[in-house]
What we know:
Distance between the termini: 18 Å
Number of domains: 1
Radius of gyration: 15 Å
Low-confidence stretches: none
CATH topology: Glutaredoxin
Oligomer: single chain
Amino acid sequence: MAVTQSSDLEIGSKAPSFTLPGTDGEDHALNDNRFEKAILIIFMCNHCPYVKAMLPRFIELQKDFKVLGAQLIGINSNDAVKYPDDSFDAMKKLAEEQGLNFPYLYDETQEVAKAYGAVCTPDIFLFDSEKNLAYHGRLDDNWEHPDQADEHSLRFAMDELLSGQEITREQHPSMGCSIKWK
């Protein structure tokens, strides 16, 4: 397994628009979330060990921050031909088995991942209510052992953003497996 770190996307950049199919059988568009205070977009997949380790924390984040106006959206952009564990059918199965409480969308063409500059799974992008990038970085400082994490980077960023403050913490890049490009 090779570790890939996300590239820097400029803070303040607008979120590229998209409409993608979800595991719930619905199409989801970025603009569907226009009333949210924050939109958290995570490029993820089914087979990546980093995502597998962090998935319970993503579910917990959505649960904790939904009431404050944040919406998490998972997007899988991996090549499902070479990586059948990341097929849309496998995504549906994972969403059901794990009880995902956020939309899990399929970017079959990989155009959305390219528009965002996503390079790894997970690659985490937090946007404010105007869909301006406020945070692009890691979940925390211990992807594998949540009980040993000292710096909960994303949670702190979400707390600051949702309380109307500027994000003051240093933004460390996301780290994970590379997106599996076609």
